[in-house]
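Comment thread on ticket #2218

A.B. wrote:
> Attaching the input chain for the structure job we discussed in standup.
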Amino acid sequence: MSQASKGLDGVLVIGRTGQLARHLQLLAPEATFWDRSQADLAHPERLQAQIEAFGPRAIINAAAHTAVDKAESERDLAWRVNSESPAAMARAAAARAIPLVHISTDYVFDGSSPRAYLESDPVSPQSVYGTTKLGGELAVRALAPHHWILRTSWVFSEYGSNFVKTMVRLGKEREELRVVNDQRGTPTYAGDLARLIVALLAQPAGAVPYGTCHVGGDPSVTWCEFASAIFASAQERRLLDKQPRVTGIPTSQYPTPARRPANSVLQPNAALHGATGVRFDWNAGLGRVINALLASS
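C.D. wrote:
> Ran it. Output below, let me know if you need it in another format.
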């Protein structure tokens, strides 16, 4: 057991198979992880009683309806998972006077800001996913006095489905790829996010003020720039024999059911990173992902 994760027994993680949950299992195996069979977020009416019966000393919500485009046609399900279930977690946390760590998203913003988003900036979601995630934020804020809402963006890892793994797969199949170049964000390695959460819960009470914090990788890039970095890393580590040509295209040439923010850049919360000592480096995280994919190929 690592020094950072020491003493995280009694912490309940909602989610077991997602990118963040998989990394949390590696860092804090002493925590308890609930999958859908133990906590079905499609039925939030059961969740509060389940959590209170278990009796955790802290809750991490590492589960969500993250299929952004499918959420447009699954509005009710997305609302139950992303809004009503966090509300149930928040009620349980309040009843036990314990902290709740809740993961949110850049999609609560409309993406029109000319600069990186601060926690205090006005929210204006433009999709069902963003709207339901904002609903979860509002519930957690209103119901759980001891909460950290961590907004992040462009999460990737060696686990699950994500942009990095998709690009590597397509890079093996195609000689040229057209990738959006007018959306900018901060790629976030799920392993870094997990390290931050573990370090956060290991802090003495009151060391990190409760509230909403932005976390994410650095520097910001477009999807096109991120794809090029992925291919360069994959070729350097010999996961790809050669890099495909990458052509930047506007969002208008890649229509999707859900509207994406043009600007997903979140200004990292300096106080949070300073208190935990965790810095995010998506380039280093990308290298770890490529190495893991190489080892499993």
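A.B. wrote:
> Thanks. Noting for the ticket: The first strand starts at residue 11 and ends at 14.
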